């Protein structure tokens, strides 16, 4: 390792210079990744390209776990810092409406267009090159940097990251999600849960309602309780949790039968004051005196390697103080690397931080190139300049973090 980092005043210059030198290469690799379709559950091809690139970038260690996550390691110090970017993207169902090919990775007015450009192949590339630069400059000697490319975030947020974290030999002291924030520092977001309430009935012929028990009438009562509970939460302000009924269904033998059961699904957005116990007590109240059950929904899915993962739809909210050394280091790195407007913000979207911060209580921030307002959208795009800037910020931040 060189000692180019030994003089603190030179480090900003050195990181900047080497990142600028590598910016064409970074852009080329980024365009490559955007050109590879990597929908959730089909990340095999892109995983191979990322694996090979980490080897080419001289990572100290590169491996793939059984779920198909790719992990690269730089350094072997005692403080572990974990970078997380998901490789999967949502689908494209409207390609004729795009102004440029969603898999062309073409550049227009300084932006690269394509599915996954903002969410979040740009952040992935920036973090991969940041790892390479840390190694080149030798500026993280006392640290162990994990750069992870994870699977299935779009459908099962947090799940693949949880499996990956369990397999690391050092528990990270800090985590960084490279999701798009326009290089602002995301210091928290709401949690979420999906619950189902099933009201029991008794099937009968539609012409003989007296012989059955129609569950839809009791469901209407539950529906009203959810509505008034939701209105109470809304009145408390935007920082509070919210609820929304999203689906209603019944199990019936035919259109002329009294249903056996009826159910509704509730999407919960959770505040930092909520947890599984508080959710349970609320759900119990919603079905009080009604012949019904509730559950937190689970969703199984298969990874591209054929392994089963299970999403348990209860993600706690999380936040980190602005004054935390991780937030402070990130903000300082932004300013030093020319992003004067960067600031600490609360996010409106969910990320794999539900696992790092929400479940594992690892101090986490979300910071990445691109604007989340273009994620999942027609004409998704990301500024080329953000990619190099993010690379500089990630590198310098790791140097600054105590
Ligand atoms: Zn994302």
Describe the overall structure.
By secondary structure, the protein is an alpha+beta fold. The chain folds into 2 domains: about 10-190 and about 315-400, Zn peptidases (Aminopeptidase, 3-Layer(aba) Sandwich), CATH 3.40.630; about 190-300, Alpha-Beta Plaits. The chain has 9 helices and 21 strands. The strands form 6 sheets. A 6-stranded mixed β-sheet has the order 1-2-6-3-7-20, with helices on both faces. Strands 9, 11, 13, 14 and 17 form a 5-stranded antiparallel β-sheet that branches. Strands 4-5-21 form a 3-stranded antiparallel β-sheet. Helix 3 packs across helix 9 (about 385-400). The radius of gyration is 24 Å and the shape is elongated. The two termini are about 20 Å apart. The model has no long low-confidence stretch (mean pLDDT about 95). Zinc ion binds near residues 119, 120 and 153.
């Amino acid at each position: 390792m060189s000692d180019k980092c030994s003089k603190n005043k030179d480090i900003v210059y050195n990181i900047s210079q080497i990142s600028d030198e590598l910016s064409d290469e970074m852009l080329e690799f980024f365009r490559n990744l955007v050109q590879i379709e990597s929908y959730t559950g089909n990340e095999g091809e892109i995983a191979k390209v990322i694996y090979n690139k980490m080897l080419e970038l001289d990572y100290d260690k590169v491996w793939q776990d059984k779920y198909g996550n790719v992990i690269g390691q730089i350094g072997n110090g005692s403080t572990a810092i974990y970078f997380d970017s998901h490789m999967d993207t949502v689908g494209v169902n409207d390609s004729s409406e795009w102004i440029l090919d969603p898999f062309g990775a073409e550049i227009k007015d300084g932006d690269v267009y394509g599915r996954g450009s903002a969410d979040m192949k740009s952040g992935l590339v920036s973090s991969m090159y940041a790892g390479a630069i840390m190694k080149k400059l030798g500026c993280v000697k006392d640290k162990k940097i994990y750069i992870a490319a994870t699977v299935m975030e779009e459908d099962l947020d947090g799940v693949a990251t949880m499996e990956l974290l369990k397999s690391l030999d050092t528990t990270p002291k800090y985590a960084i999600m490279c999701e798009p924030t326009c290089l602002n520092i995301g210091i928290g977001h709401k949690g979420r849960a999906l619950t189902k309430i099933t009201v029991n009935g008794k099937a009968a012929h539609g012409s003989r309602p007296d012989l059955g028990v129609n569950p839809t009438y009791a469901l209407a009562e539950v529906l009203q309780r959810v509505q008034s509970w939701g209105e109470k939460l809304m009145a408390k302000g935007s920082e509070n949790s919210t609820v929304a009924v999203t689906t209603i269904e019944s199990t019936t033998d035919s259109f002329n039968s009294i249903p056996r059961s009826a159910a509704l699904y509730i999407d919960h957005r959770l505040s930092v004051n909520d947890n599984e116990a508080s959710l349970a007590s609320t759900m119990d109240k919603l079905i009080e005196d009604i012949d019904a059950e509730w559950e937190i929904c689970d969703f199984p899915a298969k990874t591209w390697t054929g392994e089963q993962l299970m999403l348990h739809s209860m993600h706690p909210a999380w936040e980190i103080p602005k004054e935390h050394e991780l937030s402070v280091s990130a903000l300082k790195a932004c300013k030093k690397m020319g992003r004067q407007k960067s600031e600490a913000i609360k996010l409106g979207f969910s990320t794999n931080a539900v696992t790092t911060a929400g479940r594992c209580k690892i101090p986490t921030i979300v910071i990445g190139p691109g604007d989340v307002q273009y994620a999942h959208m027609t004409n998704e795009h990301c500024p080329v300049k953000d990619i190099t800037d993010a690379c500089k910020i990630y590198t310098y931040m790791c140097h600054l973090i105590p």
